[in-house]
Amino acid sequence: MTKAYILKGGNYLRYDVDADRADEGYPKAMTGGWSGLEGTGFESDVDSVVDLGNGKAYVFKGDQYLRVDQASNKVDGEVRSIAEGWGGLGDIGFADSISAAINWGDGKLFLFRGDAYVRYDIASDHVDPDYPLSITEWTGLADAGFDSDIDAAVAWPNGKVYFFKGDQYVSYDMAEDHADEDNPRAIADGWTGLADAGFADGVDAAWVKLAGAGPSPAPSPVPAGQLAPGDHVWYFNGQVSATLDIPRQSWFPGSTGPTDYQGHGGEIFNFVIHANGEIRRGQPHMRNRPGTHAWLNNNPGNLTGRPGGPDFGQYRDKFNWHNFMIFPTFDAGFNAIAAFLRGGGYRDLSIQDAFRKYAPASDGNDPDSYAAGVAQAAGVSTDTFVRDLTDEQMRFMQEKIVSIEGSVPGDILSTDSAELPQEIRAML
Predict the structure, then answer these.
(1) Residues in a beta bridge with 186
(2) Phi-psi category of residue 41: left, alpha or beta, with phi > 0 → left and psi -120 to 50 → alpha
(3) 120 with 266, same domain?
(4) What percentage of the chain's residues is helix, strand, coil (to nearest 5)?
(5) Does residue 237 share a domain with residue 203?
(6) Cβ–Cβ < 8 Å for 368, 333
(7) CATH code at 33?
């Protein structure tokens, strides 16, 4: 059962995500919920909280932060300065406060203050290049009056981000990359139980306690006969896990970072089950190894998704590492790129701006060159809106994106292949 937590002043309440209402018996004092909080200065009026999915929640207040262990609900370590603990934020003037924070679920965080935001890479523990940017980059937020001074934000399992400001909130579609219609709305109207708890006039912070939270994400076993098309598993030395991420801390105790497999990276494999009887094997976690995610998942655009998100022809609610969607065929994944680009987040952008967003220069890309090549091939200008492209012209964008993402084939195995580990064969 998924739970969210919402803070206001010195109190918090627990929110049942599935039932869409605040739990009974709340609000409670923050000091009663988190052991060790007393005397830290974080007993009330915090600015934001974010769960990194590693079993830890990070709490920001002013220019400082502290870490809380999600399994024990206990403060974990000393209060530290944001500039000291969050790489690059001090250099760009973002270390004096973080008013809202979102875990996007793909290895990135978005942090907000004033009228600006930054994207933060969890693996490298550093802010990405070319930030901060204006909050007006988030389509529809400015129209709703949410282009500055956001109080809180949280990514929800339904594929929405909820932004809070004063007594109002905005729902934002992650897949469409656009604020929903009929925004903003009153917190009292959209969040059952918050008004009764005295939280409807504004909240300080909100976050979802991620399902994998805990001291060490454990491998997720799959019962015999339960693997179905669209499922994936990780395999290492007779051990199998259906978790999104490699269960690094369980398989390699003492691992010190997201790429530390203690010398066993080349022995880890990702298997994806497809409806045509293929079982694809690759090593997407290793550089220059066969079997990239684009190939394993029949997802040449490396599109990501969320449970209950838009239907692009993928196996519904089946995801691989980094929430990459899994498609039954290459053609389905290729067609999904066009459907995605014609969605709310890209249709009203020019070809040039679309590539700058999809493949930003900060990630080592050359978006203007990509746009120029596509425009020339399609016989249009780079200022042409994505919504105005014909299917034939759109195909040039799709093909360019496929080349940008890259796809390195791995191995295709059958259910009776001698190369298929018996532990996985037993699960089919």
Answers:
(1) 168
(2) left
(3) no
(4) 20, 25, 55
(5) no
(6) no
(7) 2.110.10.10
Residue numbers of the domain that contains 305: 232-412
Whose structure tokens read 């809380």? 68
Report the predicted TM-score, pTM, of the whole model to 2 decimal places. Answer: 0.62
Distance CA 16, CA 370 (A): 45
The residue count of the chain comes to: 428
15 and 92 in a common domain: yes
Q: How far apart are CA 3 and CA 57, in angstroms?
A: 14
Residue 172: strand pairing partners: 161, 179
The model's pLDDT over 87-144, given as tens digits with 9 standing for 90+, comes to 999 999 999 999 999 998 877 899 999 999 999 988 778 898 889 999 998 999 999 9
Residue 212, pLDDT > 60, answer no
Quick: pLDDT tens for 378-418.
999 999 999 999 999 999 999 999 999 999 999 999 999 99
Give the Cα separation of 5 and 205 in Å (integer). 8
Question: Which of 78, 9, 70, 84 has the alpha carbon at shortest distance from 40?
Answer: 78
Instruction: Write the DSSP symbol of residue 48.
Output: E
Could you say which of 208, 242, 265 is where a domain stops?
208
197 lies in the same domain as 240? no
Q: Is residue 59 part of a domain?
A: yes
Q: Which residues pair with 61 in a beta bridge?
A: 64
Query: Which tokens in the block code for residue 345?
Result: 């987040």
Q: Show the 3-state SS of 336-376.
A: HHHHHHCCCCCCCCEHHHHHHHHCCHHHCCCHHHHHHHHHH
